[in-house]
Amino acid sequence: MCEPEDFHSTNFLEVKTSNKDVAILNESTIQIGENTTVKVTSYHVGLCDLLFSVNKSNTTINMENNRIEVLLGKKSLNKAFVIILAILILVNNTGFGCKLEAALLWKTLKKPLPPAIGFVCQFGLMAPLSFGITHLWNLDPLYGIGLLTIGAAPGGGGSNIFAILLDADLELSITMSTISTFAALGMTPLWLHVLGTRILSRAKAHIPVKNVFISLATITIPVIFGMLITRFAPKVSKVASKYLKIFMLFSGCIFFTVLVYTNWYLIPLVNFKIISSCLALSASGYLLGGIIAWVCRQGRDKNITISIETGFQNVTMSLFLLNISLHHPESDLASLIPITYSLFGSVLPALAYVIYATKNLIENYRKKSAESDYQKVEAIGGSDSTVCSDIKDDDKRISDVELEKV
Fold first, then answer.
1. One-letter-per-residue 3-state SS of the chain
2. Which residue ranges does UniProt annotate as crossing the membrane (predicted)?
3. pLDDT score of 374
């Protein structure tokens, strides 16, 4: 590392780390000897450099830096997370494929404008937006590649759930999810090559193209398998479709539980910049998708569907790609963005659902109150007519008695 003879006028070497949040030195000045030991205390997973310098004749001489990698001790957690993630992706997408019907897709594609708008918003906006946010927020290159893998990913399955909750166009949502899943085979590698290489070069990392296709294959192949089940084993498909919503809810709970548990050590790294960048990307997707659909006069249901499909990305694919492509701790740091996006990316549609559900509750309450008041008025009106009828009968009897007397 350092030879004593290189420094004739001093026996001391100044050392510091480039990132004190990752690791610090127990001593900032060390004595140079034949075997010099530098003691470092690490705080959390991450990367930093050891910066060596020496003062010689009132001149600071900087030496070659050495990289420190702080790794997670329990690597089995990472392996378990990747395996569970792959299983959930395979099963969920097979179930999604069972839900698809050729007639439904064909019916939606007969009016190609809404799916075309969705495709342009999905693959024409999200990747450039993630690249722009990376530079505007001045994100670390590894965080930037994490954000780009989200922007270049196809739509997520959760968009179909929000389409149901918001009474949007479910058929269009399913069609758009299907199109983006298969279109990602070309668009995701394209964006990662065009924009990703610029970010990865700064991070000194590399995502092999074959890993991109492996990640996409975990999505597309199960969907195709599910469609084949629908075609050749419709009874099995009906059973799978019947319990798909329950299983998606169950698997979603498992996913978030495993996600938080296995990546809990990354929580201290989450800061305002990371959260705001994820919110900015998701909000931009939802708003721009909705605005473009509104400009194209697609109507309320389709506007909401295109908006959701644009902003709701396939986070599981992004996580899987990063974990099989990057070494630790690079994959840990890059995965922090998809993890944060999975927690905060659905804030806007969830908020929209709360507003929509509250509005429906208020309208139903007012409607029931109006119906109750109307029934009370009818009841009062009915009793008044009965009283009038009784009075008329009494008057008639009196008149008859008077006539008999005469």
1. CCCHHHCCCCCEEEEEECCCCCEEECCCEEECCCCCCCCEEECCCEEEEEEEEEEECCEEEECCCEEEEECCCCHHHHHHHHHHHHHHHHHHHHHHHHHCCHHHHHHHHCCCHHHHHHHHHHHHHHHHHHHHHHHHCCCCHHHHHHHHHHHCCCECCHHHHHHHHCCCCHHHHHHHHHHHHHHHHHHHHHHHHHHHHHHHHHHCCCCCHHHHHHHHHHHHHHHHHHHHHHHHCHHHHHHHHHCHHHHHHHHHHHHHHHHHHHCHHHHHHCCHHHHHHHHHHHHHHHHHHHHHHHHCCCCHHHHHHHHHHHHCECHHHHHHHHHHHCCCCHHHHHHHHHHHHHHHCCHHHHHHHHHHHHHHHHHHHHHHHHHHHHHHHHHHHHHHHHHHHHHHHHHHHHHHHHHHHC
2. 80-104, 116-137, 143-165, 172-192, 212-234, 246-266, 272-296, 338-358
3. 66
Percentage of the chain modeled with pLDDT above 90: 22
The three-state secondary structure class of 42 is strand
Mean pLDDT of 220-241: 83
Report pTM: 0.78
> Is the model's pLDDT at 145 over the cut of 90?
yes
What are the extents of the domains in the chain?
9-69, 74-353
CATH number of 74-353: 1.20.1530.20
